[in-house]
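Ligand-bound model needed. zinc ion.
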Amino acid sequence: MLLKFWGTRGSIPAPVQPEQVEQKIIAALEAAGREQINLLNAQSIREFAANLSFNASTVGGNTTCVTVEVGDELIIFDAGSGIRELGEYLMDESDPWAKKFGFARGKGHAYLFFTHTHWDHIQGLPFFKPIHVPGNTFDVYHVHKYVPDVLARQMEQEFFPLQYHQIAASFQYHLLNEGAQVEVAGATITNIELKHPGKAYAYRVEADNAIAILATDGEYKSLDYTSTMKYSKFYANADVLIFDAMFSVRESFVKEDWGHSSALIGADIAKEANVKRLLLFHHDPASTDAEIMRVWQETKEYLGQQQGAPEVLVAQEGLELELKNPPTVSEFSINDHVEKGVIFMTLSGKFGAHATEQFRDHLAHSLQTYQTDKVVLKMENLSELTIAGIRALVDARRTVLTLALVSVPENIYRVFELAGTTDFFAIYKDIDAVLSALNSHSD
Ligand SMILES: [Zn+2]
Ligand SMILES: [Zn+2]
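Prediction:
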């Protein structure tokens, strides 16, 4: 899955001020001087500029909006002012990425999840151009019952020139229960309540064997193990944890019940949850890029000495993160394919003690279902075989009339040899060999 950040500020949009722009230009020129960049060469200037830190660039001023792309599907989290920018990009179909989605032509579809309805999380929606194109459709997921009502209210004529009922695209609303799990766009998404005025919800998104957590607008008031445990469980093993780092630790103690957290509290929770990357998010609108950079450095320093500490990043507009992990081979799985009265069973992963009952049950069920006693076990996807696995195969040999093993990897075959059991089984090199053997038996 591909994560993109369109707005990372909290509370209210916070554009960069003119004097800050001046400071950034001065800082960039000083760095260019130090690095002896050839300022007469356009190419070297561009390369230098592309590598400037957000201190010389900016984390951006838009409020929260994050997208997750899974395959050709688009999932949007929150509609802060950053969603306006997303809309501009989606409407420009000279870009192949935008063309793929088709929002400019009224063929677009997206999923839209809301963490809660504070202004900084909904205020961009009226300005999101794809909702004003007839034919576009949105599946909107929310845990607070009142989300549809609030989205309509923010477009009443006292607040906005166009009313909610004049939106051209169609919205289908889906109310989620707390803790419910939904499958959308090939992703599994679950939620948990965060402590925040009026409640907010964190989402855990699992796709492509990767896990991303959006946990914005959450206070961790008590930092006792029992209070934070439910969060570290929900955030467990995430590739990315997007965390409310609005306050300093000191502020989070002083501004009790304001519903926000800090980078260092995020560092503790991320470490406890075995998170790979901690993304500082929901930046205070009053914080300059330099101040956010300082928080970033301090968070890295705080975690620096600790074993297995997560990497710390700052969420900034334009940041993209591709999350994808290879499938885990530790699990054991069986897939059946039946042809001409023969069950071809592909065994994958580790065939050890934890898998024997699954194998026995599966075999019994398949023999019953397909009413046959010819089974070919395809073993090319087996990564490990233990003696417990061999024991289960020996038992299978006794219950199945014709049992053949095929495409046995060298390391797996060696285990049969070490167990002195190669002669217990009919082992064939490949499918052709096993088929001709089966045919000659039945002829
Ligand atoms: Zn917020
Ligand atoms: Zn909020």
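The pocket of zinc ion (ligand 2) is lined by residues 116, 118, 196, 200, 217 (CB under 6 Å).
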